Amino acid sequence: DTAVSQTPKYLVTQMGNDKSIKCEQNLGHDTMYWYKQDSKKFLKIMFSYNNKELIINETVPNRFSPKSPDKAHLNLHINSLELGDSAVYFCASTASGGVADEQYFGPGTRLTVT
Amino acid sequence: SQQGEEDPQALSIQEGENATMNCSYKTSINNLQWYRQNSGRGLVHLILIRSNEREKHSGRLRVTLDTSKKSSSLLITASRAADTASYFCATEGGGSNYKLTFGKGTLLTVNP
Fold first, then answer.
1. Which residues of chain A lie closer than 8 angstroms to B48, CB-CB?
2. What is the DSSP letter of A53?
3. How distant is the Cα of B49 from the closest Cα of chain A, in angstroms?
4. Model confidence over B3-56: pLDDT tens digits?
5. Which of A76, A79, B10, B31 has minimal CB crowding within 10 Å?
6. Does B91 touch chain A (CB under 8 A)?
7. How far, in Å, are B14, B78, B83 from residue B112 at the CA level?
8. Contact B42/A4, CB-based, under 8 Å?
9. If you average pLDDT over residues A14-25, what whole number do you get?
10. Which sign, positive or negative, has the C-alpha torsion B71, B74, B75, B81?
11. Contact predicate A91/A81, CB 8 Å
């Protein structure tokens, strides 16, 4: 069974479009994250939710909006996509109720904006 | 701001050799973690060391932490071709509970 899953794995779209990436974890974890990994492999946190409540909101354009319908799901919606949004987006989860202990990562979604 | 900095950026060794990667950070931490990322895959947690620990082992992995120097090292002994991956250190703490701050990683290539 996949612990943290993301869909889609690849996403190719044009500038200006709106797209969503979905994440689900079946680990029973309370905390979920979205990370962005750029072309140089630098991984930066974007958002974190603990029990459906937003606890981390880094300096991310407000075109990015996370949504957590329940604690097993954390989706990322991106409006008005730009070339610079091209990256790999990773979802992750941890059991620790907000404390950043071991994190479990999804396989990533490679977003290409043309 | 970026917390961890791995060194070297890239490392190429032969199978059977040991590989050592270093990580330096800037602020106080609660814990430091090492992750592995195979090409095109997500990150996999390897080991966590807390600020009051100095050394930790897991299989062929040995991690040390020197909080006075704000540095950590990851040693992989008797490396295998399957160890080829990028290795990242990540720190938690310094007033930033709840989140990890990652370095840029070391790309390890183990040649058969």
1. 101-102
2. E
3. 10
4. 667 888 999 999 999 999 999 998 888 899 999 999 999 999 999 999 999 999
5. B10
6. no
7. 6, 12, 11
8. yes
9. 98
10. negative
11. no
